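Batch manifest, entry 17 of 40.
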Amino acid sequence: MHRPSEQALGPSLLRLVTSGMYDDPLALYREYLQNAADSAAETQKPGRVEIHLDPQLAHIRIRDYGPGLTSKEAIDSLIPVGQSTKNAASHRGFRGIGRLAGLPFAEAVAFTTRADNDEPPVRVTWDALRLRSDERSGKELRVSDCVTVERLQADDVPGQYFEVEVRGVARYAAGSVLNRRRVHDYIAESCPVPLSTDFPFREQVEEHLGDVLYAMEVSVDGEGTVSRLHAGGVEFAGGRTDTFKAVETFDLPRIDSSERAAAGWIAHTSYLGAIPKGSGIRGIRARCGNIQVGGERVFDHLFKEDRLNRWTVGEVHILDPRILPNGRRDYFEPGPHLRNLENHLGAIFRRLAERCRTTSATRTRERRFAEAIADSEEAYALARSGYVTAEAARHLIEQDLDRLARVRAALCSTEDWDPDLLARLETVESKLTRFQARRGRPRLKNVKPEDVATYRSVFRAIAESTESRRAAREIIEKVLERT
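Output type: structure tokens
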């Protein structure tokens, strides 16, 4: 047994540890996985992490198979608070508090580790109940009051590993941190895991970013390796889908050197509108050490219309070590290097927003063209129906041929006109051009012969005054049904 640190926890630090730095309990997974990534990256080997959830016991176990810690390293690094020796320039976590992220949501957090087969594992346990009790009482608390250290038997454990146990998860947090699907999706969205093999531009992104995309093999309850949530495209309500059509990669320069301040990618779609909330991919995201900073709205302030950020899919990976995530990891600490990054991103986002608007306008225009073509098909049906005289039918056809000529001119004046739409237009034009009005059509249903001329005169007025040929035909047929 080793004597824990006599470090005193002041009121501010105690409140931070017991109340939590993060609003979302799921953030504890990010904190523990980023520590695992730092540890594995030092060995220059792929990291492997196994997560096991036990909702009945309200228990979480996160084990990584990295180099582990010796007994001395465990005591020196797992007990002091806010005294991390990590280098902010090269490590994902560096403030010395993140490992305690599970304390606000549990009764205890235990760390068990060893670095060598020749020594037994050591366990450091933090008593969260004691911490909260003393925080409420206002008593001065020392780390030694709430931490225990013990050596364990080395039965059935790896030679090198590091394990976190979050025990007695609070009921209000259990709905998220013990929910397998939510844990899986959170890790896929936020943590350093590989891009999905279903993402069509995976190879291009990996080639552009290189080692920046360092990823670990993470499994949740043995259900296979977690990968990022980007697949073949975007799914909208009502069964609509929009595929990823191209990827754009970019590099952003530093202020004072030729090195990259950041690198990123944008997956272009047809920009049908705002991507559904909860997709885990919408918005241009920020990542540092391949771990997400903030969420889908992190760069909203750099868009002139922040709603357009919800139309996009992409990432910005921060490479300049002078651009640091803030304590809550929801944005970055201010400074000239951040301003330089924002200036370059602002230019990219302006072009992206313009692409969204242009694509939306083109789609709206093409929808109007399609509606005009469909209505001309209705005009053909109306002209052949016998509801109007031969002369009126020819007049309708001439009107719609003029309309289609205008649609053709407008359609062909756009750079990216739809060839399928043009082919459909040509088919309708051909039908209208070949139309021959025949005289002596059968009398109108339910209309006396002596009244046919009057009805056809009224129907012609309806056809010529109604904006939609379909609507005109429907009105005429309703009149005939009631006659």
